[in-house]
Design a protein that fits this description.
The structure holds three protein chains of three kinds.
Chain A (H helix, E strand, L loop, with lengths): L7 H27 L7 H19 L2 H25 L4 H19 L25 H5 L4 H19 L1 H11 L1 H6 L4 H27 L11 H11 L4 H23 L6 H5 L1 H12 L18
Helix pairs in contact in A: 1-6, 1-9, 1-10, 1-11, 2-3, 2-4, 2-9, 2-10, 3-4, 3-9, 6-7, 6-11, 10-11, 10-13, 11-13
Chain B lengths: L4 E12 L2 E12 L3 E5 L6 H8 L7 E6 L2 E2 L5 H6 L2 E4 L11 H7 L7 H14 L15 H13 L5 E5 L7 H16 L3 E6 L2 H7 L2 E6 L2 E6 L6 H9 L16 E10 L9 E9 L3 E5 L6 H9 L9 E3 L2 E2 L5 H7 L1 E4 L14 H9 L6 E2 L2 E2 L1 H14 L16 H13 L5 E5 L7 H16 L3 E5 L3 H7 L2 E6 L2 E2 L3 E2 L5 H7 L14
Parallel strand pairs in B: 3-8, 3-9, 6-7, 7-8, 13-20, 13-21, 16-19, 19-20
Antiparallel strand pairs in B: 1-2, 1-4, 4-5, 9-10, 11-12, 11-14, 14-15, 17-18, 21-22, 21-23
Helix pairs in contact in B: 3-5, 11-12, 13-14
Chain C lengths: L1 E5 L5 H25 L4 H9 L1 H4 L3 H28 L6 H19 L5 H30 L3 H21 L26 E3 L4 E2 H19 L1 H11 L1 H7 L3 H25 L13 H11 L4 H24 L4 H18 L1 H4 E5 L6
Antiparallel strand pairs in C: 1-4, 2-3
Helix pairs in contact in C: 1-2, 1-14, 2-13, 4-8, 4-9, 4-11, 4-12, 4-13, 5-6, 5-7, 5-11, 5-12, 6-7, 6-11, 8-9, 8-13, 9-10, 12-13, 12-14, 13-14
The chains are: A mainly alpha, B alpha/beta, C mainly alpha.
């Protein structure tokens, strides 16, 4: 075994890439949960995004169109969830599970015939000047644009939630939907938008896996990333900046175990590959400190 | 004060399946007047108010505000038209700060910094001190109400609706609130004041409209009308006051020894060194403004929250570490404030709800298996004894009206013949007839030799039924005093006076 | 315009009618889906729902009904306790795997000893304990640290899958298997085999267990105070606390029941129909059982029926795969759709839908 053979700069760089799908899905789910809705269907929306994105990108040859298709696909699936929990008042936990099962089945049906094809190349962008900085350059500034888009989404979500009226209203709806309704805010409408944003983000996250990380389509390729995104939202205490820590921590564990596998460390591969999931559990146990939004998971029905 | 009409209601009617909430309601509110809307629970007050505030659309009828037709489609439109409302419940966001809460109730809130300044100014002008940066969940009930009032005042409303505003205040705080309202009224703001407390209305309002079963049954000038007459208009019959027969006071059956507990959740209250003992045949009334530890005290007594064993002594036995089931076995029963979802499970039948707390003392299980016929008999017994109006014991708890469910819950505990009974807010939101019946039942239980502890925010109720009175303030319990002969001022001081409220600056 | 009104009492009629209606609507929607895939919809639906029972090869596929239904029913009965109480164990798939691994390990440890009276019961015990132990991880973390049991139990599915691979490739690999992954075949080892009790019916010990669990669950839920406490906690946790239910104990009890039953299902599978520990041993029974539990209204008898229906879709799906070339994922989608429609129609049980004229006053 030879740990010194690991290139640490490369490892840190790939950490950012590994964290991106989870970060994208988690930021969407964070917004959904801040609006008071628990959507456990992230995994289903991610895998749908992965397959939609792959198919669109494959036929159009454009990864960007692929990402657009993934966002639309994820959002479309989330509308299904929204109709059920917001209009038909179904249990959010059960409906989220149904969404995951449905998404997994649908993606594998739709993705039949695309297995094993390579995705069109998604270019990396070397940011001028910055990317030439030694060590830091390759780690931070030689990625594809989606990595930066993920970061930008986190920052803008933070800004919108905390510094705009729209963000305030969203938080109010999630905190106490009866009070928000009494003040005249459209609880259901606001939640629709939040859920669709969550679906679009999950779709992007899924497409990042099928278009950049792997990059090809295989059944069930998200392998629990959606669930990990859900866990990271809890870990982050529903705060965007802490999401970043969670996602990078997870990305770090993933990349490290892959590198250890490659370096031929004398730990069986299976134990290494279960490490991200165990890390997630540990993190959940140690860091479940945040206060959940007051109305999270509760059904809203505007009666009298 | 001008006599010009600000808001005119004409024939407002709103029906829900099974009930007519408002039937042909018409009356006028003049500019600058304090107008009382009086009625029992279920008389249709809140539906009417929600109609004015744009939350409910009437089936028929019209409103005219300041000479123009007024039919707000949503609260936003009402606010734009100059109508503001202070809610009794459900309109603050615990996790947000004061300024954010206020911004949410405004149409065009200024930037946070400017808003904070405006909040400070308005709260100074009207004697309602508030720190805009504090988290609302950490405020006392009185302070929370100030947030609501300031939120309304910042929009210079023409009409301010106040829904049962004094239920969370000490008598001194009530006086200060009245001064604020009088100041507003003298500045030309109309106030629609909803209450069922007659003395308050007589002290404050110039005009009263009385609702019963959705209809206007009378109007009067409360300053010149006897409280008794208004009460009869409101209830429709003359009321029986519960009778307190002198009973025998026996040995101590419940003793608290420096009962202390940390707050059970983020926005809860701590209990601090509560010491008191209650004797057989005695009713101890515990007053206090909401949020001063009432729920926590009930939980510590019922066994939902456990404490070191010797802090709670039931019949001389250390019981602080016992759970609810063991305490029932020891002879202590309890009825929490919240009927639906705490004292009773809303989506379960009355039979199942009878089993919920009656299992041990009524022997409704054997070796873990439930004797359903016996549970059903127990439910039927409660329904018959306490005149619970329901088609039968198979009905869900949530299908009962508030007063009927409360009778069921209190009856369920009383029929278990406890040695100690603890109740929290036994008549909250219950119509007058049911409230009188519940109070009488509590007195009868004490007469039969049980120790009864009544936690309530209704001081009139406590004065009516208590032998001794103590006040709960920030988790501390004052030394109990004989209830007879206590003056309102003394009670107010026991409740913690006016906290940090100040009288409005007369001429600033 | 549509308006919803909460019913004072949940509708009895709709409680029973919604699952049937959901099945019908799913058939229609599924037919449309098959049509979109270029299949004749009626043929596809008939292939899935009719042929396995009465078709040409029904003699072969009918026993499969019991074989597939048994694990689904076992797991779903266990899950229903937690789901009723608001405790969401969605990692039954992991508990199923762990039950199988533990049972197989016990069985293989005795190989080739001939002592069925000892080994088979021990394996059942190992399966129960293995699943239960795996479920205790999320249960204890929830009780001790307040950790979300949904996420932990789910993460443990992936961990269990990795362990399964490790076992199939390492400690439990068949030493006489010429290096192929996978354990010895337990169904060919007389002391451990979970045999058909009645030939050509699919009736094995797991089916017996499933039926017994349905009966016990029914008694527990309707007659015993434990079942009452479970229902009470699901309806209103605060009322449960007032009644004297200790939430920690309830969580542990519900998770233990569901874990143990899932583990038992894994044991019967590995010793019978599947026969060996292999990398692809699990086929998603743990997740499908969630649908079964809901479709059966979290009621033991309902679960019994729902288990058979869902088993039928599995078998029908396989038949359709062979005869029509329908992809396996179509069946998965079909099952997801069923759960969706069911949840949507639940509305009718608790709310009354009214049509009102549009336009305000």
């Amino acid at each position: 075994m030879d740990i010194s053979s690991i290139n640490w700069a490369l490892l840190l760089a790939s950490l950012m890439v590994a964290a991106t799908p989870i970060l994208l899905a988690a930021i969407g789910e964070l917004v959904v949960e801040r609006a008071g809705v628990l959507n456990l269907g992230v995994e289903g929306m991610m895998i749908s995004g992965a397959v939609c994105g792959f198919i669109v990108a494959h036929h159009s040859g454009s990864p960007w169109l692929g990402f657009l298709g993934a966002a639309l696909g994820g959002a479309a699936l989330s509308v299904l969830f929204a109709v059920l929990v917001l209009n038909l008042l179904s249990n959010q936990v059960a409906t989220g599970l149904a969404l995951t099962l449905f998404g997994l089945g649908m993606s594998s049906l739709v993705g039949r015939g695309y297995n094993g094809i390579k995705a069109p190349v998604f270019d990396k962008v070397d940011i001028p000047l910055l990317s030439d900085i030694p060590v830091l350059g390759p780690i931070l500034f030689q990625h594809d644009l989606m990595v930066y888009l993920g970061l930008a989404l986190v920052i803008s979500t933070w800004a919108v939630l905390n510094h705009t009226r729209a963000g305030l209203i969203l938080r109010a709806v999630g905190e106490n939907h009866e009070a928000a309704h009494a003040l005249g805010y459209k609880v259901v409408g606001i939640r629709y938008l939040a859920i669709m944003f969550g679906g679009a983000c999950a779709g992007l996250g899924g497409a990042y896996i099928s278009l950049v990380r792997v990059p090809q389509w295989t059944d069930g390729m998200t392998a629990g990333a959606g669930w990990i995104a859900l866990a990271i939202v809890v870990f982050a205490g529903w705060k965007p900046w802490r999401l970043l820590i969670g996602a990078y921590l997870f990305g770090g564990v993933t990349v490290l175990q892959l590198n250890l596998q490659a370096a031929g460390v004398a730990i069986p591969v299976e134990y290494l590959s279960m490490s991200p999931y165990i890390a997630t559990i540990l993190v959940l146990v140690i860091m479940s400190a945040g206060r959940a939004p007051g109305s999270l998971g509760r059904t809203f029905h505007a009666s009298r | 004060m001008s006599s010009e009409t600000l808001l005119s209601l004409k024939g407002l009617t709103k029906a829900y399946p099974g009930v007519v909430a408002n039937s042909d309601v018409s009356f006028d509110i003049r500019a600058g007047e304090i107008h009382a809307l009086l009625g029992e629970n279920g008389a249709g007050k809140s539906t009417l108010v929600k109609t004015i505030y744009g939350l409910v659309k009437p089936d028929r009828g019209e409103m005219v505000l300041g000479g123009a037709p007024y039919h707000p489609a949503e609260p936003r439109a009402a606010r734009t038209a100059g109508v503001a409302m202070v809610f009794q419940h459900f309109s603050l966001f615990d996790a947000l700060n004061v300024a954010e809460n206020i911004a949410l109730g405004m149409e065009d809130p200024p930037r946070q910094r400017d808003l904070a300044m405006q909040i400070r100014k308005v709260s100074d002008d009207y004697g309602l001190p508030l720190d805009p940066t504090r988290i609302v969940g950490e405020l006392s009930a009185g302070e929370r109400q100030r947030v609501e009032i300031v939120r309304c005042l910042l929009q210079n409303p023409r009409l301010l609706i106040m829904d049962e505003p004094t239920s969370v205040l000490t008598p001194q705080e009530v006086q200060i609130l009245f001064q604020t309202l009088r100041q507003l009224s003298s500045e030309g703001t109309s106030i629609l004041y909803i209450s069922h407390k007659l003395e308050e209305i007589r002290a404050l309002c110039q005009h009263a409209t009385i609702l019963r079963l959705g209809k206007v049954v009378g109007t009067c000038d409360p300053r010149r009308t006897q409280a008794r007459d208004m009460a009869e208009m409101m209830v429709g019959t003359s009321l029986l006051t519960p009778e307190k027969a002198p009973g025998e006071i026996g040995e101590v059956v419940l003793e608290l020894r420096k009962l202390s507990a940390p707050p059970p959740h983020q926005f809860g209250s701590a209990l601090r060194e509560i010491s008191v003992s209650v004797r057989k045949g005695e009713v101890l009334g515990i007053g206090g403004v909401a949020g001063n530890g009432q729920d926590e005290l009930l939980a510590a007594l019922s066994g939902e929250m456990t404490t070191p064993n010797d802090m709670v002594m039931i019949k001389g036995q250390p019981s602080g570490a016992l759970g609810p089931t063991a305490r029932r076995r020891a002879g202590l029963c309890a009825a929490p404030e919240e009927r639906n979802g705490h004292a009773a499970a809303p989506d379960m039948s009355l039979t199942e709800n009878a089993l919920l707390s009656g299992r041990v003392r009524r022997g409704l299980t054997s070796r873990g298996f439930v004797d359903w016929p016996a549970a059903r008999d127990f439910a039927d017994e409660i329904i018959a004894t306490f005149d619970v109006r329901t088609p039968g014991a198979d009905n869900m708890a949530r299908s009962l009206s508030g007063g009927n469910l409360q009778k069921f819950v209190i009856g369920r505990e009383i029929l278990q013949k406890p040695d100690v009974l603890i109740v929290n807010q036994p008549t909250w939101g219950v119509d007058a007839a049911a409230a009188a019946a519940i109070r009488q039942a509590l007195l009868d239980l004490a007469l039969d030799g049980a120790a009864v502890v009544v936690i309530s925010q209704d001081l009139d109720e406590l004065m009516e039924i208590s032998d001794r009175f103590a006040a709960l303030n920030e988790g501390r319990l004052s030394a109990p005093r004989a209830a007879k002969g206590l003056s309102v001022e003394e009670i107010g001081l026991m409740l913690g006076g006016a906290h940090d409220m100040e009288v409005a600056h007369a001429e600033a | 315009m549509l308006k919803l009104e909460k019913r004072a009492q949940p509708s009895q009629v709709w409680t029973y009618a919604t699952p049937l209606l959901a099945v019908l609507v799913t058939m229609v929607a599924g037919g449309l889906m098959f049509a979109a895939l270029g299949e004749a919809p009626v043929t596809a639906i008939r292939t899935i729902f009719w042929d396995p029972l009465f078709g040409q090869f029904a003699a072969f596929s009918r026993p499969q009904l019991l074989v597939k239904a048994a694990p689904l029913i076992l797991i779903a009965v266990g899950l229903s306790f937690g789901f009723r109480a608001g405790i969401w164990n969605i990692g039954a798939e992991g508990q199923y795997i762990m039950g199988a691994i533990c049972a197989a390990a016990v069985g293989l440890a005795f190989y080739p000893l001939e002592a069925r009276w000892l080994i088979f019961p021990l394996m059942i015990l190992a399966g129960l304990l293995g699943g239960m132990g795996w479920a205790m991880i999320p249960a204890l973390l929830r009780v001790r640290f307040g950790t979300n049991e949904i996420l932990v139990s789910l993460m443990l599915v992936y961990v269990a899958e990795s362990l399964l691979a490790t076992m199939a490739l390492g400690p439990l690999r068949n030493p006489d298997g010429m290096g192929f992954p996978g354990s010895r075949n337990l169904s060919q080892y007389a002391s451990s085999a979970n045999l058909e009790l009645i030939a050509r019916t699919g009736m094995h010990w797991g089916v017996v267990f499933a039926l017994v669990s349905v009966i016990l669950a029914y008694g527990l839920l309707s007659r015993h105070i434990f079942g009452f406490n479970v229902r009470l906690s699901g309806d209103s946790p605060k009322a449960a606390a007032f009644s004297g239910v200790q939430p920690g104990r309830l969580i542990i009890a519900c998770m233990a029941i569901s874990g143990a039953l899932a583990g038992a299902a894994g044991m019967f599978e590995v010793a019978g129909p599947s026969g060996q520990i292999s990398i692809d041993f699990n086929v998603g029974y743990g997740f499908t059982a969630i649908i079964v539990a809901y479709l059966g209204r979290l009621h033991p008898l309902g679960i019994l029926l729902a288990g058979f229906l869902m088993a039928l879709t599995y078998i029908g799906g396989e038949v359709a795969q062979l005869t029509l070339g329908l992809p396996r994922s179509a069946i998965q989608l079909f099952q997801g759709m069923l759960l969706f429609f069911l949840l949507a129609m639940d509305l009718l049980t608790n709310y009354r839908v009214r049509f009102t004229k549009t336009g305000g006053a």
